[in-house]
Amino acid sequence: MGSVTGPPGPVMDRDEVDRALARLGAEHEAIETSLLALQDHAGRRLLEGARLTGVTKERWASAEASITLLWAYFDAYTDALRSAREIRSRRRWSSREDLTELTELLRGESVTVAGSATATANAPTLAGTGKLSESFSLTTLVDRMNELYASSLDMVVAADAVWSALPARIDLLAAELQRTRQLAHSVGVRPGEHPAGDDLERITRTLTRLREQVVSDPLAYWVPSQGSSAPGGGRPDTTVYDREARALEDVRREIDAVLTVRQDAEQRLVRLRDILSRADRTLAEARTARGEVLAKIAATEVPVVSGPPTVLQEQLATAAEYRRHAQWHRLSPLLESLEQKAEYELLRARESLTAVTAPLAVRAELRGRLDAYKAKVARHGLAEDPFLIERYDAARRMLWSAPCDLRVAEQAVLRYQQAAAELLAVPRAAEQGEPQDHRGER
Questions:
Q1: In angstroms, rounded to a whole number, what is the distance separating the alpha carbons of residues 35 and 91?
Q2: Residue 41 DSSP SS3
Q3: Alpha carbon distances (Å) from 258 to 1, 90, 187, 336
């Protein structure tokens, strides 16, 4: 292969030629190894046999053309290297003409690729694919092959990474979904009857669609790494998968709650009946107490006591009906609601009883205070004091009469307390030399 324009730059000497041939030979082996590895890559074989769609279909068409062109370039590179080696092997000490030809072959644009090969590739790295042929230097050809190899390998590795990661995970999740569906059906969680049943249907449709898309268009679920130039730099996009996995976990928790209801439904119903019964008894006690207060306490506002809530009893009957018909998915939320309402109803009944009996509690406290002061006076030997007896009897008549005016009775108790306190203070005054006759002040 000669050139009328002469070799590019100075003519290489024998040592330079030998070093260049050694370097080009090493590059040839490396490129061949890489191309064979790409040819045997599991991802490439899957891409060849898959029914692709979307962005993967477009990029694989371009990658296939690039791989075809890669082999065409490699064959041209191989032929050029073989020719250079043959020229160098003609004689031990290459002549000036041999060195000139080798310089042109090793440094000049001496490698010609037919236009049919470049046109077949239709690769974005090539310009003028309509040319009859295109010439390259060996260095330029190596750079072109590296570019085409990197882009092709990037596409193949990305598709293979998605196929290796997502379909298997989707299948595992689908198997878990099927088990959850069977369990849900056994406890009455079905589409159209329970929100969790509707969620299972939606997750099933989404996973089916996701698997079809991942298999036919894996690159649609690939996120390249920012700033990474290495082939296959990135990760599978698991956003949809992760969302559905979380949704399935939520459904599983809901099913577990329903299963728990099935296991302890009777115990919870018994407890609910007991709480509502206690609330009813407390309200009945409050109504009885109200009648007693109205009869025994005068001039007092006594709150009205409401009757038992019939709505809760109706809901409790509905809950029992759900249990008899194994409608656990409906029983679960109803029991939770009833338990909260029943506890509140019992609290309300107790508060009502406390409010109604408050006047009786005040009367009882006044009675206790009156008797406590009487006992104190007796301990000091003053139980027979006529003035104290008069005050005590007045207070006692008010507290033990019906109806009792609490305000007047409280004043009577206070007068007795004051009289007792004054009388108890007399002995202490006598000990200190103070006048002892306070009868006139009474």
A1: 33
A2: coil
A3: 85, 89, 7, 11
Question: Which residues touch 417 (CB under 8 Å, ≥6 apart)?
Answer: 369, 373
Q: Taking a C-beta distance cutoff of 8 angstroms, is the pair 415, 391 a contact?
A: yes
User: Which DSSP helix (H) or strand (E) runs through 32?
Assistant: helix 14-40
CA nearest 266: which of 208, 319, 309?
319
pLDDT tens for residues 376-421? 888 888 778 888 888 888 888 888 887 888 888 888 889 988 888 8
Residue 130, pLDDT score: 52
Nearest to 7 by CA among 111, 109, 134, 79: 109
User: What pLDDT is attached to residue 191?
Assistant: 86
* Predicted TM-score (pTM) above 0.85: no
pLDDT tens, residue by residue, 129-184: 455 677 888 888 888 998 899 889 999 999 999 999 999 999 999 999 999 999 88
Q: Decide if 357 contacts 293 (C-beta within 8 A).
A: yes
3-state secondary structure 51-76: CCCHHHHHHHHHHHHHHHHHHHHHHH
d(CA 186, CA 180): 10
Mean pLDDT across the chain, nearest whole number? 83
